[in-house]
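Can anyone check this?
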Amino acid sequence: MGENQYILLEKQDKVAYITFNRPEKLNAIRWQDYMLLYDHFKECEEDKNIRAIILTGKGRAFSAGDDLEGYPGSGQESVIMGNPGIALAFQGKYLELQLSGYQDYLQKTCMLIMNSGIVSIAAVNGVCWAPEILYAMDFVIAADVARIAQGDVRNGICPGGGSTQILPRLLGRRRAIEFILSSTEISAEEAYRIGLVNKVVPLADLMTEAEALARHMIERPYSAIKLVKMAITKAQELPLSDGLALEGWYSGISIQDEHFQAFFKKFMERKKQK
């Protein structure tokens, strides 16, 4: 299996499928895989034909999380060198790391997703011990067999993929503290109850549900989706007054979109006929 096959990218019509493809390792993610994941999302972002992305895993896991075989002490530290920022951090070259302007690739992927006009859908098919990406997705559909946890703290690590910043904005501080610090695995139903996933379905129906949602969202104008997502993302950073001003600006410029203009034209024609 080639290096570029550990995360697959397939495109069908207006939908892109990104699939974790190391089923024999429960889709554990290596340092260089985070770079590839970003590259796949970036390619979709630049493809004007793609309107929705479905992210899932092959086999019985969505992803078991980081592949610890690439961590210091494993005997396979050479794989770290595939990710320049991680390499500098593990070598203790923190000044060089700071000056390089490096940003964690998972953080970059999350920000790309949260500000994109493409609708992102996670189809969680099983074990998910890499939930950071879920926090940034627009929709999360989980199979009834899915189990979700963030085990960083249990293993003595502060998460570095955006969890401490994105999850509190998604669930609130209290829920985020509980989920991250406890490192407890929860069921798909519990994830739905606390607001981490949108819907729980039988495993056999998972991709059908995700694809139906993708087709539904594709009917919505790209510009409206992008502006709404950008405004909601900014709402998590700005004071209310500034956020309201930003929303007003986005709303005002959105009426220039051809979809709204077509809708408005039909509306006026119907009004004239009355």
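Reply from J.R.: I decoded it. The chain has a mean pLDDT of 89.
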